[in-house]
Amino acid sequence: MIQGEVLSFDAVKGYGFIAPDDDGPDVFLHVNDIVGDRAQVRPGVIVEYVPEEGAKGPKASQVRALGDDLDVRRPAGRAVERPDGEVDVLSPREFEDAITEMLLRAEPMLTGSQILHLRGRLGTMARGYGWVED
């Protein structure tokens, strides 16, 4: 089993990507390969999985959520690359939702105004890296 961080996961489309701990290429994640509670698999969650070679590149099977690891950091400027070579870019709403959730899990005592301030600063940085649509 290998561990990695879920970079993206769209429950409606049924797929996403994992960044393996060994800094290898991102790994495709399909909803049918999740073992256990599928609701636990979301961006920022650490998972363990069995690596396989899929038709379009690295693929995860037997994926099991281990929990959140707020200390895991993606290198600056690293976007989520899909097997087709395209890069996922978040909408402003998706980014705000993800950042708000992360801040609340990391520091539940933050005030609303603190969250809005931090979210704004992070949003400016994310747009500069091209992680969020303008």
UniProtKB/TrEMBL annotation:
Q: Which residues form the CSD domain?
A: 1-65
Which CDD domains does the record match to this protein?
Answer: CSP_CDS
Which molecular function GO terms apply here? Answer: nucleic acid binding
SMART domains per the UniProt record, alphabetical:
CSP (SM00357)
Taxonomically, the superkingdom here is: Bacteria
**What Pfam families does the record tag this protein with?**
CSD (PF00313)
Q: Where is the signal peptide?
A: none
SUPFAM superfamilies found in the cross-reference section = Nucleic acid-binding proteins (SSF50249)
Output the Gene3D superfamilies linked to this UniProt entry.
Nucleic acid-binding proteins
Question: Which InterPro entries is this protein grouped with?
Answer: Cold_shock_domain, CSD, CSP_DNA-bd, NA-bd_OB-fold
**Name of this chain's protein:** Cold shock domain-containing protein
Q: Which organism is it from?
A: Arsenicicoccus cauae
